[in-house]
Amino acid sequence: MPQSTSGTGRTAAPAPTPLPTIAAGAARDWRDYALLLALACCWSSTYPLAKLALDTIPPITFISARSLIAAAFLFAILRMRGVRIPTDAKARKLFATQQLINSTFPFLIITWSQQYVPASNTVVLASTTPIFAFLITSLITRHEPATLLKLAGAILGLAGTVAIVGLDALRGFGSEIVAEIAILLATISFACATIFGLRLSDYDPMVVAAGSLLFGGLVLLPPSLIIDQPWTLHPTPQAIVATIVMGIVSSALGLMLFYMCLSRLGTLTTNAQGYLRIPIGVGLSVVLLGESVPSNLALGLLLVMAGVAAMTVPAERLKLR
């Protein structure tokens, strides 16, 4: 079909692709929630694995390496499946935009901020993503029902995160205001990515993950070569293994599950995995890094599970609108 033209004879720019609408009563079953739990497990390994790798691998090189490892892993599977990555301009633009707002920009910002903000404060600030996603959905995009029940769930999940991390973490807020604001900007970017990612629902989730990760890894490769000069590094075997595992588990499998959850569960429910990652991540840190068990873990778990339940149970089941 020919594009419409304006009165000046110029071709009108194509309208942006609308966000798919997520119906309030969309059918879900246990497999959808199993995917959400699997996503939380994949992404909860990020903190302990990154801590093992970043001691001897600089952040830019680390993010680039794990992205390229993940892309290579997914491309190998796609080749075995006989699936090709789309190379048209629309697909490249979508993949590039999604990777920038979902990984490249927020990961670099958070990595920089962690030089000045304690890990506990970073966890609390990063856990505000579901709240920002709710506000953007409710006030701007309105692509799915943003009920008060889901907002209550986001707040409960944040309260549970604070309880697990420890109330003492709140006392340090404000001392590094620029870095803390930067982390909040990164969380807003994550929230936007969960909404923008709906535009990719027509593509195979593995294709989206592979294309996005390849772009992200290649974008950071030149800065890595110039700034870090990877050939001069001496990473430990532990750091190398952590980078490879993180690339395959957290980046490749995690990102693929993320797009599957978005298409099945929508933006707000998919964001609930952010709270599930907290107790799972704490457990992995205790096992892998020997860290102590938080004193308020039981209370935090109770609040987190209540928040996740409120964010994931379809509203119509409780007769709420």
From TrEMBL:
<feature type="domain" description="EamA">
    <location>
        <begin position="34"/>
        <end position="165"/>
    </location>
</feature>
<feature type="transmembrane region" description="Helical">
    <location>
        <begin position="99"/>
        <end position="117"/>
    </location>
</feature>
<feature type="transmembrane region" description="Helical">
    <location>
        <begin position="296"/>
        <end position="315"/>
    </location>
</feature>
<protein>
    <recommendedName>
        <fullName>EamA domain-containing protein</fullName>
    </recommendedName>
</protein>
<feature type="transmembrane region" description="Helical">
    <location>
        <begin position="177"/>
        <end position="200"/>
    </location>
</feature>
<dbReference type="GO" id="GO:0016020">
    <property type="term" value="C:membrane"/>
</dbReference>
<dbReference type="Pfam" id="PF00892">
    <property type="entry name" value="EamA"/>
</dbReference>
<feature type="transmembrane region" description="Helical">
    <location>
        <begin position="56"/>
        <end position="78"/>
    </location>
</feature>
<feature type="transmembrane region" description="Helical">
    <location>
        <begin position="207"/>
        <end position="227"/>
    </location>
</feature>
<feature type="transmembrane region" description="Helical">
    <location>
        <begin position="274"/>
        <end position="290"/>
    </location>
</feature>
<feature type="transmembrane region" description="Helical">
    <location>
        <begin position="123"/>
        <end position="141"/>
    </location>
</feature>
<dbReference type="InterPro" id="IPR000620">
    <property type="entry name" value="EamA_dom"/>
</dbReference>
<dbReference type="InterPro" id="IPR037185">
    <property type="entry name" value="EmrE-like"/>
</dbReference>
<feature type="domain" description="EamA">
    <location>
        <begin position="179"/>
        <end position="311"/>
    </location>
</feature>
<keyword id="KW-0812">Transmembrane</keyword>
<feature type="transmembrane region" description="Helical">
    <location>
        <begin position="148"/>
        <end position="165"/>
    </location>
</feature>
<dbReference type="InterPro" id="IPR050638">
    <property type="entry name" value="AA-Vitamin_Transporters"/>
</dbReference>
<keyword id="KW-0472">Membrane</keyword>
<keyword id="KW-1133">Transmembrane helix</keyword>
<feature type="transmembrane region" description="Helical">
    <location>
        <begin position="239"/>
        <end position="262"/>
    </location>
</feature>
